[in-house]
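Shipment paperwork, digital attachment
Item: protein structure file
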Amino acid sequence: MTAATHSSLFPQVPDSADAVLDGLDPEQREVATALSGPVCVLAGAGTGKTRAITHRIAYGVRSGLLQPSSVLAVTFTNRAAGEMRGRLRQLGAGGVQARTFHSAALRQLQYFWPKAVGGEVPRLVERKIQLVAESAARCRVRLDRNELRDVTGEIEWSKVTQTVPEDYPAAAAKTGREAPRDPAEIARIYGMYEQLKRDRGVIDFEDVLLLTVGVLQDRHDIAETVRRQYQHFVVDEYQDVSPLQQRLLELWLGDRDNLCVVGDASQTIYSFTGATPDYLLDFRVRHPQATVVKLIRDYRSTPQVVRLANGLLAQARGRAAEHRLELVSQRESGPEPHYCAYGDEPAEAEGTARRVRDLIDSGVPASEIAILYRINAQSEVYEQALADAGVPYQLRGAERFFERPEVREAGLLLRGAARAGGADAQIADADDVPSQVRAVLGTRGWTAEPPAGSGAVRDRWESLAALVRLAEDFVRAKPAATLADLVAELDERASAQHAPTVEGVTLASLHAAKGLEWDAVFLVGLTEGMMPITYAKTDEQVEEERRLLYVGVTRARRHLSLSWALSRAPGGRASRRPSRFLNGLRPGSAAPRPGAAGAAAGQGGVERGAAARRKRRGPALCRVCGRTLTDAGEIKLMRCEDCPSELDEALYERLRDWRAGQAELLGQPAYCVFTDKTLLAIAEAVPGTESELSCISGVGGRKLDKFGADVLALCSGREPMSSDAPSDATEDSPEK
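Attachment content:
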């Protein structure tokens, strides 16, 4: 929930259509009252987009302008669809269909299949990856666990972009995809996968959309039936639609334009699945008469968090960056984001757990704290650190709340107790509904105090405790409620997947955190190679990584911490560097140079890099701790002598050996080639281009011309080219 809608878990239903508009800001109200024609809502993070579109639907329904059964609202996750249904129910518009694309398509496919094809819809395969593994084996291709997952992802991408097996190699090359195996092999596995599905009469998740599109394209009578049913469409997270989903939406619409879309190109983080922001950015091209509303009032985050978020996007490039929204915080001031470098990953996890413990001790609920990382494999060390600190946690992406065995069992027990009423001995002595719930759940493991440690026992207790808290909140909102009323509320919430809050720190990947928010967020593991991830090679891929970090930053309401570890394990070489995305934002770091990425590729890149270095002004700051540097040697290294070093010791030794050879050829002291401090700076920075090398103090233009190729070869692990001693190698004055 956003700050703008955080007042109550059980709000009163508005008593009129006009009351639905109460509390909306001017832009949200403009969205809510724009009920005809195409509408495009460009909504920044935390600006209340879900609030705006649910109030739009509810206002239309309550004013009689929209029939609930004629509205179809679609989004991308069951959680988001469940939240939308819950909000609409609270606004008195409970009859509206709010579904995911796949859920809406499957419902239509099941209804129309007997008429369009005959018989029953093929069975939906539950574990696609097993079928992909069998397909690979039949093609005599051995895939390890990670390759199997990645090849499955390539098949999914192919289907949502409507790419058939034989076209996969060309499509992958055209879009610059990094195929996990030879594209021809993937094409063969993909083809075999499709053949096995046909042989067994099963379909997968993507087939649901493909088959629905096929039915609507081929059977105009069925398409018209759907269009008569649904007159108005709302699409949330429109920046994440794939070409296949866009095609389905167009078939639903027909020649009508009663469409409202909402999205933010700066939160496009699923392009690897086929999602593209182009449909959002081109909406005005396809609908010239569209009403366009921008939501930029951020009700979620403090000015300090918003400033960092805006700063991240200010450095972005590409089409999505050109349409970025400058957020304006509507909240009171808060603490500055906290930056911290740790010696190694276990130290980072332990330090994070300590800070989490301190926040909880200061009154921040554990459920309002999240630790977010780039990949799921990073979670283990944080699970251990939180367990050691006695902090409860939950892993995001685990089983849905209402599908957990203990929750299903609790629901059955509460339903039975409600039917029995006073005849049930368990609740005979209970004075109120929460006491009745505690009594019933006490027979299945709930206690007033949580069990020690973590694991399955603690997870079960947290689920039951969440039901107890929900009962307490329910009765506070509705004092006259009975146990039967609570059971009915649970049934409605289960149907809408509107889960109560589990009291534990959330551990989640940045992708899984999309659409969520917490009072305190810890962004961890922010090193080069992890953020951006090492396989992000192209400019587009790197920019998506920046957007992913932006999504992480904008999850925080008040407290935000960003951290990184200088080495992987204790005692390891401290060779890691903080994420480039933090340059110019974290204390003591220099802002990235405009055009730096492309400077090395073009002629004259070296000169531009050197010029930028020469023009730098202001105090030199340590890139680790941020202290102002005054010692010449420290300035050359851009760090304090006693701050953790990122030195590549093997590279440093190779550079020293190479320098000795060059000095011997020149017949001059070694420092006339490069000083020790310059070699140390090179071994810490490990430059990969001439532009990067030119920015190291002590590497002038002449030395770059004479020695640059050799130094870059050494940095990349190659042998330098042998060369004669240059006559003017000492033209740059040597540094002592």
